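DATA SHEET
Item: assembly model
Revision: 1
Owner: S.N.
Input lines:
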Amino acid sequence: MIASYLNSIKNGTARYLDELATKDGQISEKWQHLAHYYDCAGPQKLKQSHDEVSRQLRENGVTYNIYGDPEGMNRPWQLDPIPMVFGSEDWEYIERGLQQRANLLNHILKDVYGGRTLIKEGLIPFELVYNHQGFLRQVDKLMLEGDLQLIQYSTDLARGPNGQMWVLHDRTDAPSGAGYTLENRAAMTRVFPELIRENEVRKITSYYQTLRNTLINLSSRSLENPRIVLLSPGPMNDTYFEHAYLSSIMGFTLSMGQDLTVSDGQVWLKTIKGLEKVDVIIRRVDDVYCDPLEFLGESHLGVVGLMEAIRQKNVLVINPLGVRMLENPGLMAFLPKICQKVFGEDLILNSVATWWCGQEREKNYVLDNLDYLIIRGIYSDQNAVFGGNLSSQEKDELIRKIKANPYLFVGQETVDFSTTPSWIDNQMVARNAVFRSYLVANSENHGYSVMPGGLSRSSPQQGVFMVSNQTGGISKDTWVLGKQVETPQPPPVKVSRQQAKVQQQILPSRTGEHLFWLGRYMERSAYTIRLMRMTLMAYNEADTDIHVTEDKVLSTLLKSLSHLTGTLPGFTKKQVLRKPESELLSLTTDVTRMGSLANSIQSFLSNGYAVRDRLGLDTWRILDSVSEELNGMKRPGITLTEVYHALDQMVIKMMAFYGLNIDNMTRESSWHLLNMGRFIESSANTCTALKALITKKFGLATDKELWETTLRCNESLVTYRYHYRSNLELTGVLTLLLSTEANPRSLLYQIKKIDDHFKQMAIQEFGETKELSPIRKKLLEAYTKTKLSDIETLCVLNEKSQSYTQLITFLDEIVALIQDTSTIVSEDFFNHTSSRYSMIQTNLLPEI
Amino acid sequence: MKYQVTHVTDYIYQSPSSLCHNIMVQTPKNLPFQTVEQHEQVIDPEPEYLNRSQDFFENQTVHFSIERTHSKLTATSKSTVVLSAPAWMTADPGQTQPWEQVRDWLHTTKALNDTRQFYLQSKHVEFADGVQEYTLQSFTPGRPIMEAMLELNSRINSDFTFTPGFTDLSTPVSEVFANRKGVCQDYAHFSLACVRSIGLAARYVSGYLETIPPPGKPKMVGADASHAWISLYIPDLDDWVEFDATNNLLVSDQHIRVAVGRDFADVTPLKGIIYSAGKHTMEVSVDVRRS
């Protein structure tokens, strides 16, 4: 395998350096051991390993989202089983280079928001900073305590033709990928435990400890129990997985802008208990989206008033706002000089050659060499273009833009960066790779700690240089080989015990609301599936000679589906009932239809994804597999028979989801809310289904069939047979489903459960109270009504209408009480999640 | 000259709000030729949070929030300001330095960053096509900067028609230039685009004009509301010299200065974010009297 790899390099891609091969085509020292392993293993074994790695990641639910692609949500994360490898000498130089660069950028940051002497002395051109949208005038002179202002820092590096590592980008605003890196390493460790041990691959966990340590130290100077939240743009963000993942492993509270509010100049987290003060925000929301009052008015990702809270030093935001100015690629051209001037040292890591067009000579160079350069705006790298790829018309347009505002553009050299062995389509091939490093300020030694590893990505095609996940790059674990000479391990987090204590009981209102609805939609989906299966079974077994409208059992089942899903009139209309097929398909598979099964499952999933940090890691993969199953159901042209089989699978997965949560979730408020949702839904469903299925009298044979169906739907047929060992009787059915508290499918049991969970949550959040809350009053009423109901009376037939009218009244009353309960829960615990707001400002005044 | 200024802003909400956050920039500046004798702000309902600070451009800002249910918000700023004629009123425009000299000096590190920042484009001041050519008709080679500016000011005043309602905050300079119509903010933003497009540093100034004119003098445009004009940096005079294109004036002692910035966005008199589902409206009244 290795020999053919070396051969392919010699023949095909000789213009690039290769990480495995030396210049004369031998295996480099750092790759010796690995190369030997791959040779012994062979392609078959490596393919197996690749599958195993993919399985690990899938099972851990590692996903990312692609913007602008409706199918792009929750894509499985791709990991190459072959790592990117650095030898220890190589790494030592990279590490020193990164530390120097971090210190340098930190110095620039402090200066730009401080005395601005670098600009006064001409080391940084004035226009480069003052024209950059990342230079936020609102944060001028606002500093964190201590020397280090740049807390998290990442770079994208690649090895150039001279063997040196080049910096392609500095990432300072809200660098992402550290969570994926940890997942990559976890998967690799499972699949290649010996390889990692034998190669002495350095551990990366210290990075995360240092980050936590630094955050706590920065905040705990005046505080004993700092509350740290991770501010995420939300489930639509490309790296939302990582926000949830990092929150759960680091013990931060995952939140979105709408979970936070500012009052009295302080930041508060809206929890089901009320407002809780926030001390530190680690943000994944871009700088100017953080506060619509002072930055982008249209942003709904941020927190209104956050800037004022920062100004008053009532909250720490990491990375601090304003840091994005360091991402300006134009700065790269000036770093060597600044480094000399400030530290009296040469810059260790070169940046990719950059010409800032704000200078006459550089501008002319860029315009003359447009075909060979990458042209970027100084503010965002989204619009980078390779000059050579432009049509002459596009080129003219670009030249016009550069000439009009030269200081907004840079030209950058395209680096032929090195290739590294990559596993693509079951072959080991050479692909260009980019490595993202992670640094964090270390508050213990006042320097920067570099993660010995990071996130590498290779392009799936040959010779592609702009590698990112958005464009289909494949990730690689990064191995730094050989023992570290000295290992200054960060001390364990001192206040971790207190931190754990504080985190325990915080439940943001929005999270609570999602959990409540997760429980409701889980139960709604499961109940709908059961009724749907009974209906489909009856439909398939129905006598083809008899019209659906005359088949009382089938038509009652169909109508009950319309009632249960709230999609009336549906089957209550004769013409729909006569040809039920298309309505049945729509009720199961049309996601866009409110109340349909697919819609309920979709709602179950979106509520689930929104609270994934609260669910055990194992639970995530069930969400993913439900999502897969749902995608199968949505496929056009699916038949009812196929739907039937899919429902079988789906109900098992739903139950597995619930089962795992029983095992995994700690019994705190999140668990109670999930269950309140679940039992509120199931008690209401029980009543609705009973009303639709058995409150009418048809004839004994039909009635018995419907009673049996009802028992099946409520998973109580076996219990019935066990309890009564007799023929089906309506009184028996009702006794079992309404008032037999020992039966977990009975109404009485379910109402009791809502009350139990509510009681426990209330004690946890608010402590014991003597007074009965409005919710418990409603529940007590429903419970008592059910308990005291006389089954014989409920079974008295109204001869005129041939229906059990007292039973109908009873069921209606219970449903109303349950609905009231649900409404009060929403008002009492979730009402402060309301976060609609709009901007008002002095406009141009017409009279002047 | 002593003036009493009353600036009242009302927000009226369709549905009540329980939280709003605001930034107010309505505190007049103390300058060599402008003394603020008295200044008070009354906000009704009384804010739960109020804090004064200074922004990047050294304007006084007030951050306040109202954290209980309310349907109406009234912010009143009252100031007593004494004005005298600025030193530039006695300067001889024909004796000021050539404008190119100023431009060249600004583009070196000898000029302060705080000054240089005002020759860049900004949110509401873009270099639209043709603006530079328009400017260069007055800024002919070697011409004294103040003389050229006075001519530009006068040309804008006669070329443009004061037209309320034609523009709003989102109307770009290019459109104002194409139609030669607008209100005082547009005159100011266009003036800024002109002088910045040839590399000079100029600031947006927000403030007030006196409401009732002295006997025998006509009432000026821009009274009864907040007003806007510009100031151009002239190193020879060591000052930011103010020009009001809306009234074709070299600004003297009838304009009360509140704040300066790159453009309107930096000095919005009052802006807020209101947590409420309904719509809201804003009403502003300004009263300026001699006392």
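QC remark: Chain A has 29 helices and 23 strands.
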